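$ run holo --ligand "MUC" --emit tokens
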Amino acid sequence: MLFHVEMEVRIPHDLPTERADALKQAERVRAMELQRTGAWRHLWRVAGRYANVSIFDVSGAQELHDILSSLPLFPFMEIRVTPLCRHPSSIHDDDR
Ligand SMILES: O=C(O)C[C@H]1C=CC(=O)O1
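-- output --
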């Protein structure tokens, strides 16, 4: 099942720089792992914002929740999730 996910990162200004950098690095490693497994199918930076637009390909809402809530930056992200289904005019076989 596909989900459109928007993540806006808001790291508090009083979080020590080393802690913030460690979280960003851990997030990067985890995001790359999830892309390799296919669960995190697309990852795009939103121009001009510390935010991304992503497409996740997972079994359902519970798996998506488990993934998102275990991301290192989860406590500092505002996340919006939109479930997707196939568009009848899509020419892409992997849209499902
Ligand atoms: O930078 C972000 O958008 C937040 C998060 C998502 C992937 C990643 O590496 O960090």
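-- notes --
The chain has a mean pLDDT of 96.
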